[in-house]
Amino acid sequence: MILATAYLMLFASSGHRLNTYSYLFMGTYLASNLFIPYIPAHFFYKAAFFYFLVLFDSIMVITGIYLSGNVGTDFYLVFFLIICLSAMGSSFRYLMVTTLLLCGIYGWLLYQEGLLSGEKSINHALRLPFIVIVALFFGFIVDAIVRDKDKKIKESEERYKTLVQSSAVLVAVVDLEGRLLSANNKMLSTYGFNAEEQMLCKNISEFHSPENSAEFLSHIQKVIQHDMISEYESYERLFDKWFFRTISPIKDSEGRVTSASVVAKDITERVKKEEELKETNQKLIETRDQLIQKDKMAALGRMASGIAHEIRNPLEIISMGVDYLENAFTDSNEMAKKSFGKIDNAIDRANKIINDILKFSRKTEFKLEPVVISELLTETLSLAEHHIKKSGIRLNVNLPDVAVIASVDRNMLQQVVLNVINNAVDAMSDRPVKELSVSVRRESVTKIGYKTGYRQTDYFKIGEEMIVVGIGDTGMGIPQDVLPKIFEPFFTTKETGKGTGLGLSLAHMMIERLRGVIDVQSEINKGTVFHIKLQPANDIRSKGNLP
Amino acid sequence: MNKKKILVVDDEEDFVFFVRENLMNTQEFEVVVAINGKRGVELARTERPDLILLDLVMPDMSGEQVATVLNDTPDTRHIPIIFLTALMTKEDAGEGPMKKIGDSYFIAKPVRTKQLVAAIKQRLGEN
């Protein structure tokens, strides 16, 4: 607009030659200027294009001057404005070339109009070097400013580059598809490359396992699509390392998130230490449990000795007394004989209970070791074979071909299994179908707090494996109201004198010591199944043998 | 027939009474009794029994202490001893009436007269 007004003033002052061509030229020039806003901004950053525009403008100005027919006018001062503006293009070389071309054309015009001769020739001629000097002046100033700015930018860039490159963390830029756009030295060395080019434009899936890649990519996409920061830890199988990654969005000049920065830290050492700590803690808990257990056993031992002493002494008096009385009633008194027999039985029963308690309390030698369960079961079954065959029971044994190894105390488990088998055999004594089934299988733990009797335990963790020994019979079953009591000490349904009521309660205590669980399912008239859940042996190998 | 003299040392008076009666009834033994360890040692010295039945757990002196004292005296050192204990299980005791552990002989309580007599005879025979 300013230029158009200036032209009008120029043409108006010249007073002649204002014809169609002049209007046409002005229209064209204005139209050409209207196009400029539609040229994408980044074109202006190219020096050649920018200075071409400047030159074009200058030629237009010269053409305007020519068309006005007033070549000698001071309108040429517009050149200074142009030079001043064009210095912003910050290319000293292009500025000088443009200026010289401009001077050439303007000089030629002056010469053509005969203004370089005559009385005012020196005035007109001086215009040319004047333009060049102004151009030189602006050029130098702008160049100095640009240089200084460049230097500062370069320095700051260098600082950031060093920061990123020499960083001890892995830094990379990735796009939405997971392609690497840049990577720092630490990243290169970690991934085993020498030069950044070897990694660039490659997808992260080329450097990670499929699972790791999927996880990585999902985080990248989340970050880019939702413009958020994402942090996660993952174990990289290919490196045998743990990484902590922070992924943040990178925005372009229009504020759109097109890529993401990935900062990864190798946290393997930390994770290792954490695991060690966890393990130590676990060991501590176990040791504490064992100490408590040991203490319990010691207390039980002391109590058992006390009970044995206090009960056996009166028993001894009774039995000696019976012997004495038997001797006194030598004449065959049937009544007396029967009574003595009954007293003898009672003494035996009481003594048997003391015997069981003593036996259990003395089991101080306790050693967890890997035991092939099917072998132990076969062994135990052969011990009970006589009892089983005598009772006419069909044996249904289902043992796996592969060795299922549990961590147990061999004698303890055998005692428990024997006890459960004996119970099963007794339960089927007057049943039409007599079948004893014994099985072993691995099972993964699906719930917390398996109950053993009344008590909930935390011996098994979800997702881990346990070994389940099943012992089932086709006996008369156990009524629901009796079921919870069967692990209580001195509880028995066997006829008086046959059971001490200690078998299952001892079995329960023993399995508890093995950090296992024993439970029971029963259906009236169908049968009863005992499940003994045991710790697999691999668990123990890391924990070491327990004292 | 020369009756063997048996010394019974146990803090349970009633047991001591019955065991004395029962052993005497066999007509094979002469029985002296003590109801504590100290008295047991005295009697062992004065009565010179052929065998001592000695309870392990007694309030004043344990059976072990009594045995040690007797073993330290030349006069009583040779007297065979059978310990009576309430802390032995059926499995410990094994088949016989008496169990030999180291150099000592044990009988598990409660014991019947028949087994006791058998054990005494065996012990005397071995000596």
Task: Please describe the structure with a list of short key phrases separated by commas or semicolons.
heterodimer; A: 547 residues; alpha+beta; five-stranded antiparallel β-sheet; 14 helices; 14 strands; rod-shaped; disordered C terminus; B: 127 residues; alpha/beta; six-stranded mixed β-sheet; 6 helices; 24% strand; globular
Strand-pairing-aware structural class of chain A: alpha+beta
How many DSSP E strands of chain A?
14
The shape of chain B, in one word, is globular
- Considering DSSP H and I runs of 4 or more, what fraction of the residues of chain A is helical? 40-55%
Element order of chain B: H for helix, E for strand = EHEHEHHEHEEH
* Main interface: chain pair and counts: A-B, 24 and 21 residues
The number of helical elements of chain A comes to 14
State which percent range the strand residues of chain A make up.
15-25%
* Gyration radius over CA of chain A: 51 Å
Task: Give a summary of the structure in a few sentences.
The complex is a heterodimer of chains A (547) and B (127). With 547 residues, chain A is an alpha+beta fold.
